[in-house]
Specification:
The structure is a single chain. The chain has 214 residues and is mostly helical. It contains ten helices and no strands. The protein has one domain.
């Protein structure tokens, strides 16, 4: 369901969901740029993308898609791997690509940790916001783990794969967004997303258990 329907039926929920979704995506993109910067690529910093200013990250088409059909995207943070030393480049593509997913998992972990520590009732507004924040970030992390370009999972795969596999992935990339949209429309990605969500939730549960919470 697009966010327009939610705006019409429940403006308050629309505002809360929009803000949580927007900044979850911003943290995802910021993480890409920050890790790239730390590894020697200042492109995102030079272009003013290491910021929480949402205007710097919004994509017109991606925002309209989110409003209309409930699926959208932000501007990808620009990364130039050529700026990363050659001996670190393969590790660089893995770490930079995984950074956004990691940021979303951390956001989800913090939200669930606060839920556990605060012990608020299910109907409490803070509890509902934290639950929604955790859900959004788990969904974003799971979705981006799918190894189809231009999603982060494909870049992580390329960091580990052989050159022949990388050539195939690169050839698919110009059509990747259409492949992803088509598979989403057909529901073919739903089992994969569900499985990845379960893995992420399991990982968060293990960490919570290890720190004595939950």
């Amino acid at each position: 369901m697009g966010l327009i329907r939610l705006l019409m039926s429940n403006p308050e929920a629309f505002v809360v969901l929009s803000v949580l979704l927007l900044y979850s995506v911003i943290f995802h993109e910021l993480a890409h740029g920050w890790v790239a910067y730390k590894m020697g690529d200042p492109t995102a910093k030079w272009m003013g993308r290491l910021t929480l200013n949402p205007i710097k990250h919004l994509d017109l088409i991606g925002s309209l898609m989110l409003l209309i059909v409930g699926f959208g995207w932000a501007k990808p943070v620009p990364v130039n791997l050529e700026n990363i030393p050659a001996e670190k480049r393969r590790r660089g593509i893995i770490l930079v690509s995984a950074a956004g997913i990691t940021a979303n998992i951390i956001c989800a972990f913090i939200a669930i940790l606060l839920l556990q520590l605060l012990s608020l009732g299910a109907g409490n507004i803070i509890s509902r916001i934290l639950s929604l924040l955790a859900y959004i970030n788990i969904m974003l992390a799971a979705f981006n783990l799918i190894p189809i370009p231009p999603l982060d999972g494909s870049k992580i795969l390329m960091g580990f794969a052989s050159e022949s596999v990388n050539r195939v992935v690169s050839q698919i990339e110009p059509f990747g967004i259409f492949i992803v949209l088509g598979l989403l429309y057909l529901g073919a990605l739903n089992p994969v997303i569900d499985m990845l969500q379960n893995v992420i939730v399991g990982l968060i549960s293990l960490i919570l258990h290890a720190v004595g919470v939950g």
